[in-house]
Amino acid sequence: MLAIDLGVKTGLACWDVEQRKLLWCRSHNYGSKKLVAKAAPGVLLSAGDPGILVLEGGGDIALIWKQAGNKWGWDTRILHAEEWRKNLFYESEWQYTGDLKNLAINYAHKAALWGGMKVAGRLNHNAAEALLAGLWVLLEQNPDANLPWPMPRVQRSK
Length: 158
Prior knowledge:
Layout: E1 2-5, E2 9-16, E3 21-29, H1 33-46, E4 52-56, H2 59-71, E5 75-79, H3 81-88, H4 91-94, H5 100-114, H6 125-141
């Protein structure tokens, strides 16, 4: 599964859903939508065999990734940050904080360790949000998975 925090400044996280393992996580500043479109096929190929393509966000850049994903056989899912936030964080954490980016970074470090990847340094918010969006979809696919932090009791759908 490849999860992407959409934007010209893009976050990318690749998960092995069956093994519940984080394979890699990074960010990239493409500089323009045109360069995003040029890079998308190569990024999809670098993620391995087509699987689930999780796009966090919308707009023109979502369309670029969705079209590239469709061309290469990916099953695309578009979601918004509020969906994974309400399912991974307690409401009091995310609705009443002015610093959602740092909250995501802190949780993403925990999620990376849970996924078997030690993060050198500090993730930026783009990579962190891609990692967490992917984690939420992974948890939907694996309802028995447990996280290293208490989760809000939200019904997971498949």
